[in-house]
Write a structure and sequence with these properties.
It comes from Cellulomonas shaoxiangyii. The protein is an alpha+beta fold. The protein contains 2 helices and 3 strands. A hairpin with a 2-residue loop joins β1 and β2.
């Protein structure tokens, strides 16, 4: 019986450390998915805004930047572009967001996540 003394403490520390690492990995994956979904939503909303009659692609980019700054931070709104494209005869507004991919919390390298939002341009 004396040979098993202290083994529960070692088991707890080893398994507890593994559970904490696993929990942090799942939490980080959730943060990455949240940032990606937020960037996609902001790009799509900006494209819809820029596709309204009388709006320009610059308005779409400005709306997307405002949404990203309000929902995430300024770091995610640094590289936003918008332009009109033609897809099989249909005029579209395309908004592209290039943002850092969060590696630790919301910190990460610049320009590794790229998402697009599209919306058909309203006809006069």
């Amino acid at each position: 019986m004396t040979g098993d003394r202290g083994s529960a403490v070692v088991d707890f520390v080893l398994v507890g450390g593994l559970v904490v690492v696993l929990f942090m990995a799942v939490l980080q994956l959730a943060i990455v998915q949240h940032v990606r979904a937020t960037c996609i939503d902001a790009a799509a909303e900006g494209a819809r805004y820029g596709a309204h009659l009388g709006r320009e692609p610059g308005d779409a980019a400005a709306r997307t930047v405002a949404l990203l700054r309000a929902s995430l931070s300024d770091a995610y709104a640094r590289d936003v572009s918008a332009h009109r494209v033609d897809a099989d005869g249909l005029a579209l507004v395309r908004v592209t967001v290039r943002a850092p991919l969060p590696l630790v919390g919301l910190l990460g390298p610049a320009g590794t996540l790229e998402v697009d939002g599209h919306a058909p341009v309203e006809a006069p």
